[in-house]
Amino acid sequence: MKKKLIIDVDTGVDDAQAIMVALAAPDVEILGITCSHGNTPLENALKNTLRVLKVCNRLDIPVYRGCQKPLLARKQHAGDYHGKDGLGDVPDPDAPDLELVQKRKAVQAMIKIANQNPGEVTLVAMAPLTNLAVAVQLDPSFPKKLKALYLMGGNINSRGNTTACGEFNFVADPEAAYVVLDRYTCPTFIASWEFSCRNSLPWSFCDQMLAQGTEKAAFMKKISTLSMTKAKSADYQKEITEGKGFNSCDTYAMAAAIDNTIITESEEVAVTVELEGKYTRGMMVLDYIEQMKKKHKAVIIKKVDLEKFKQMLVNSLK
Length: 318
Fold this sequence. Notes:
The protein is α/β, with parallel strands linked by helices and about 325 residues long. The protein has one domain (about 5-315): Ribonucleoside hydrolase-like (Inosine-uridine Nucleoside N-ribohydrolase, Chain A, Alpha-Beta Complex), CATH 3.90.245.10. The protein has 13 helices and nine strands. Helix 1 runs parallel beside helix 12 (about 250-260), helix 4 packs across helix 5 (about 130-140) and helix 5 (about 130-140) packs across helix 7. The chain is globular, with a radius of gyration of 18 Å.
């Protein structure tokens, strides 16, 4: 039986790569892609998602309009890394029209899909978690109907990439991240910022992967030129906790959702999000001493099989 996915994105370059990995996986069925504010404003995230689906000849997959701003936080984007448009500022004059976006809103779509496929749907969340927080407010039973939740976000060693102690997806909507980590009691797997840094891809592999001579590889090369140039800069490399290479953050969560055996080291721990700290707002807190007495533990991914991961990326651009 095919794995059924809902993918929640704020489509920047790494989301695009993650979507392409899912589309290339033979045993995966994408039931819907929900879009959120995040790397880029919501309208861009919708356009970018359609662009990715078009290059993969999969415009049949429904795309839904989600939340355009955080629950309480001030809106912020990551244009300096992903480009103002979210996909490297290389516009496509023949981009699909936003008319293709479904009339049903993202949160309603998530709930409906889970109701139609109880216990069968894995939700892969790679954006600020606003859509997920609103979904559980509207339908408190929604998380119980999911098979699992895989998310890219948060941090495990208090190293930030947006604030001193905060990773972008969590900092962009800390209240939503708090709600999700508190109320989603389905099996939860977290690909954190530092983990993705430590499992970054060698530049030589990236060059090889992008030189495959296919339309998909040409598309990925075009949209990732800006972020790869940025990632090679000395300033950016200081942020990379270990290893020098390209960090395709969101794709790690997607790869683990598609094939759980890719995870070679993990730990289970209760987690929450700091909402009040002057320097730590949006930081993920790991409760190793079980002070919070939380029954639900998240699986924190520590290491993945990089060879398997690389093969998934290569296959996605064939």
